[in-house]
Every structure is written in structure tokens, then in C-alpha cells.
Amino acid sequence: MFTGIIGDIGTVTETLPAPGGLRLSVRCGNTNFSGVRLGDSIAVNGVCLTVASMAPASRIFTADASHETVGRTNLRHLRPGSRVHLEQALQMGGRLDGHIVTGHVDATGTVSAVQPRGDATDFLIRPPADLLRYIAVKGSIAADGVSLTVNSLDSSGLFRLTIIPHTMRSTCIGSWEPGYEVNLEVDILARYLERLHAIREDRGGTGAEGRAQAASGGLTLETLNANGFF
Fold first, then answer.
1. pTM
2. Spatial separation of the C-alpha atoms in residues 4 and 98, rounded to whole Å
3. Angstrom distance (rounded) from CA 138 to CA 187
4. Three-state secondary structure call for residue 185
5. How many helices (H) and strands (E) does the chain have?
6. What is the phi/psi pair of residue 113, to 5°?
């Protein structure tokens, strides 16, 4: 588990085809490797990967990504020299400064526009249509592993992220341009609420109708309240 608070910016040193997917080698910037062990989880652009080998002297670790992961994320676009967000797994007992992030990316979205807003910068993102039902204004979303707040969602299917100067300096977001593919992980609570709603509808006798409603984005505060969730 992660929090979406980026701990380091790494640089890809090598990408190699591997049985079942892709092997990445990444050089860390400032991450302290003294506590990292083989088999540990590290989020790379928000993708939970397992450390397969490491060279503390050079601050390089390798990790394997499956075909499923490569096809669903922007890892397929990485090349030597690409900069990536890195986050080590959450330690229980510490502060949860972001939100619960699993590192299981749902899909990629596309940056549609970049707009200055005073000292901050707005990024308009177009997610796949089937993710829209999980995205809520003032809700959380992980974008390339960064815990961010959705500030608006319009009728055309775009949502807006407003990035403050500190976040721009601490991440790679400043390099995002229109057309960039960004890894998206929706708030896991939204997925569980949808599942609970579908189960409640089935138990109420609606069966396929309840499932269709959930699949079409019919999860609302009104329907949750009517079915006893609140």
C-alpha cells in the first residue's frame, strides 16, 4: 500500500523485454537504500512493482512488469533517461498525508490541456469513459502515483487537477504536455461502494438490472441512501 506522496524522482537506465513482460532498471535520486530489500514493493509512476535486484552503490534497482501491467500503464513508453515517480511502501504507524493507493493502475488518461492559474497550473485530463463513474469532485485520484484532488468534472468527461508550485517542484508533473498518457488509479473506496451497491440490488431482487445500473454509473448518494448504506 502507498499514500501517493512521492518520495523520490528516479531515472530509467534500461528497459529490456522479459519473459511475460518488461524488466526495468531505475536509478534513484535520493532514496535511502539502507532499508530496501529484495522483494520489497516500490511504486514506479504509481505502479506497484517488486524489487528483483538492487545495487546500493549505484542506487539502481530492477523490477519486472507483466504484460498486463505494461499494456494498462504508461510503463510501455519508458526509455533510458525517462524520469519516474518513486514511492516506497507505506509503513504502518506513520502519517497518511495522501490517500490509500494500492499501486494497481486502472488505466491511462490523456492530458487534454495545461492552463496557468496564478501561481498554480491546471491540468485537464480525459480518462477512459468507464472510469468516470469512480471520479468525484473533491475526491482523490492517483495520477502517475501522485495523490491529487479532483477540482472539477465537466459534462465532456474531462476532470481538472490544480497543481501547486510545491508539487510541481517535487514531481515530474511539470513535464506533462497535451497528449501525455498518465497512469490513473481511482479511489479504492469508490470501487467497493459500487460492489456493495450491486450486491444490495441483487439481494433486493433486481439481479441483472442492479448490475446494469452499477455498470452504467447509477451509483449516487440517493440510491445508496435508499438502499440503507447511510
1. 0.84
2. 6
3. 12
4. strand
5. 5, 12
6. -155, 155
